[in-house]
Amino acid sequence: MKDSFRQSMAWLHTWSGLVLGWVMFVIFYTGTVAFFKQEITLWSQPELVANPIEPVSALAFAQDYLQDKAPDAQTWHIVLPERGYGGVQLSWLSESGAGVVLLNHTGEQVRLRPSRGGEFFYRMHFDLHYLPRPVARWLVGVASILMFIALVTGVIIHRRIFVDFFMLRLGKGQRSWLDGHNVAAVLALPFHLMITYTGLVTFVAILVTNIIHANYTNYSDYREDVYIERIARPATGESSPLLPLPLLAKEARDQWGGRHPGEITVEHPGDSAATVMITGALGQRFSAHRQAIYVDGVTGEPLALSAPTGIGTALKGDLVGLHAGRFAKPGLRWLLFLSGVLGTLMIATGLVLWTARRRRRQERRLSIGFRLVEKLNIGVLAGLPAGTAAYFLANRLLPLDLPS
Predict the structure, then answer these.
(1) Would the pLDDT of 313 be above 60?
(2) Which among 43, 31, 79 is positioned nearest to 389, based on CA atoms?
(3) Where are the alpha helices (DSSP H) in 311-382?
(4) Residue 324's closest CA among 362, 274, 284, 276?
(5) CB atoms inside a 10 Å sphere around CB 44
(6) Rounded CA gap, 149 and 78, in Å?
């Protein structure tokens, strides 16, 4: 009975890991690289000098720039850089059009080479870049379920899980691939389980919509609990000076217990009904919750505090924050990165092991399925790292004035 159960688990482990194994490799690989998203962006766009940007001074020169270049805009939007490095992104919307600029740590406009930097890997991690967003997120969600099944069944079928931890025999063909697979899996097993489960939590609303319908009568009630809702006030047409944004941001920071703002949106700047929405930064904070404070841009009077409510929402915010690892200091971020590398190697060795085990059986005539898996292994497992290297080099070697 035990042997038949273990054999069933071995079959499930093999096929749950194979069906979308290449998608899972892409997800793990890009997610691991994205732990250093900001650093990759600085490499890809060296015009962004790696000087720290203090939020208060950044808001001061951002407000000066917008008042000079877009005084009649309907909306201003300011995005401060993660972890204080990079640039300050400004955008505005007016009747004559829209504009987007980036300012460096001195408040000067920067002309950047057209690269998405580390953001490319971050978005590809769950949007897969080449597919429509709904399809990609469904695919990532299903791949995460299969990955979790593969991890659990992998623990069940390994009788000598702790012995395998110390067993790595090189130059032994199929045995070496199995040892490498086991070591990569066991060495960072808690991380693999955590990162897969917390990643799955981020897609629960997409994969299991019945949960929402069972707990909320209207979808608007769900959005009110989970997402930050904007407060809209119509413009009056009466001119009034906008309060200094650093002052408003300081008051928000005091209310949040020292947490810095991440984004500031100003509706109807220069109007007596100007509204300022200050959203807290996610960087260096464990939870992925985003709180927002609304204040009157002329008087500074608080209008509302928008924050997701409910135990379930709070738990999801903590799990998503744990998955993203934005709170991690450099030492912990390196540990997360190395654990992600082990997870990527675990998937890669598992895919190669599938072909290594079956090659001898099919020496005379290789099946279509075997050849497909082998070609996908070469294309994905070798192609993605090669593409990453080309991406890094192209960002620095191609001239800025090269036509797109």
Answers:
(1) yes
(2) 43
(3) 311-324, 330-359, 368-376
(4) 284
(5) 22
(6) 42
